[in-house]
Amino acid sequence: MNLHEQLGALEMGVDQLIQAVVAPRAENIPETPALTAAQEAPVADHVASRSKAEDVAPEAAAAVVEAAETTETTETASAPAPGEEPAAQALPTLEINRPAQNEITMTIGGQTVALRAEQIGQLIEELSNARASMTPEPPPGIPPGWRFVSTKNPVMAVQKQSNGDRLLVMRHTGHGWVPFTFSPDMVIQMYMMLTNA
Cβ of 53: how many Cβ atoms within 10 Å? Predict the structure, then answer.
């Protein structure tokens, strides 16, 4: 099983955890213990099988499984009895810390995972791919107060596509390899912008 499939499986486990914690229920019907156990097993098995691979951090997979189990147990235990008003539940918070230059820790619902540079790069790539298909899109203009790190004279690769477009891939020090596709008209506009600036 390759690294991309492992990341996809971990992402699926995280998505299921987020949906279980954040997504509002369509109905306020308490879950039965049998249903909860049936829902926990596939997530736990799926993520646990991925944690056996060396490229995925075992502590990250364990944290996802443990958080999913905690979430399901909490939801089942705190489900209102028929006729009672549902109690307001506090949503888990995300905390990000940087204990060392080459490490970041992420804490969700009391579960902490330490990520190294390679794992952060994988996370950035997966989040970027997911964000590209989400709405609303990023703002069309540069937002005021936007913080960024620019890469001076990045390494680049260019490839001509069969339809005449140009694929430009640039290496950003924080985002990694970032691909852009330009139509021939846009290539001319970009050339003019760069030479007139």
Answer: 17
Q: Which helix H or strand E contains 177, and what residues bound it?
A: strand 176-182
* Helix spans in 22-146 (H): 33-51, 58-77, 117-131
**Joined tokens for residue 35:** 């249903």
Amino acid making up residue 191: Y
Residue 45 pLDDT: 43
Structure-derived torsion over alpha carbons of residues 46, 48, 50, 52, reported in degrees to the nearest 10 = -150
Residues in the chain: 197
Residue 53 scores a pLDDT above 60: no
Q: Is residue 19 packed enough to be buried (19+ CB in 10 Å), middle (13-18) or exposed (0-12)?
A: exposed
In 3D, which of 22, 36, 25 has the Cα closest to residue 76?
Answer: 36
Identity of residue 19 = Q
